[in-house]
Amino acid sequence: MNSEFFHQGGSVQWQLGPVIDALRTSRESTHNIRHQGRVRELPSRDVVRQIVDGVSAALFPTHYGRPDLNDESIDYFVADTLNVALDRLAEQVRRALRFSPEFSSEHDQTEDAVLAERARAITREFAASLPGVRGLLVSDVQAALAGDPAATSVAEIMLCYPGTIAILYHRIAHCLNRLGVPFLARVAADIGHSLTGIDIHPGAQIGGSFFIDHGTGVVIGETAILGERVRLYQAVTLGAKRFPVDESGALVKGTPRHPIVEDDVVIYAGATILGRITIGAGSTIGGNVWLTQSVPPGSNVSQAQMRNT
Questions:
Q1: For the chain, how long is the longest CA-to-CA vector?
Q2: In this predicted model, what pLDDT tens digit does every residue of 255-304 receive, in sequence order?
Q3: In terms of Cα–Cα distance, which of 298, 240, 294, 302 is closest to 270?
Q4: What CA–CA distance (Å, rounded) separates 202 from 70?
Q5: Which of 95, 114, 122, 190 is at 20 to 30 A from 277, Cα to Cα?
Q6: Alpha-carbon gap, residue 163 to 169, rounded angstroms
Q7: Whole-angstrom Cα distance, residue 102 to residue 98?
Q8: pTM of the model
Q9: What is the rounded CA–CA span in Å between residue 232 and residue 148?
Q10: What is the DSSP string of 32-67?
């Protein structure tokens, strides 16, 4: 009945026939924005969210899975949850690989088989990396517990701290990026950004024991490199100072353009650090500082100092 109403009532009332025809023409020819003019099959944000939720539950079963698990049931839960998540991941990897330059040839059945096998191989590598990812995440949680006097327990940090959720999404997205699925990694990273207000590009390299306190508005660019035990506060930007272009004026992609932050650096709220500069180990960067030059290890940079330079 609804379909009949649409065709006999809705289309007539709103005169949709010409609009639908024009949209088809725009979609198929005039303004065709499909990848290589043909790819329709895209990764699903909803499924990627389910995958990250499943992987998170497998990594921390009682925190992100089921709180009623016991020693007898926990391994069964992890195995089942991870198996479902990895099955979903393999399909999403297959879809994302279609956007890789390596698979830019015309669509055919042989290529489908190659994509599916590569997706399974990447998914197996991803699964093998999960113990290491969990170790990094545990170090991040421990850094939050040690660095925030308001934190009362590991459980509170894992369930209530947006910085913890952001770095969890980043560790998973960075793993996918490293394994050669940057498009899927960006989808995962953007979901984490939407959930937390913290924007970390999956290409950013972040060492262990990383802590983002409060977190809202933090931005970490693609080529940023952060060492061990780095702490950031809200609204910190680790960004690019300029964007190099080639002879034709097009942006040059992938060049190192974001800061290197060495071990044991603290960067306070609102600081903006731009360009391929180095913040030396053990430095403290004060709130609202605008910094575009490297500083040696052990530096203490304040807003007043920057106004005087």
A1: 75
A2: 999 999 999 999 999 999 999 999 999 999 999 999 999 999 999 999 86
A3: 302
A4: 34
A5: 190
A6: 10
A7: 8
A8: 0.87
A9: 12
A10: --SBTTTB-----HHHHHHHHHHHHHHHSIIIII-T
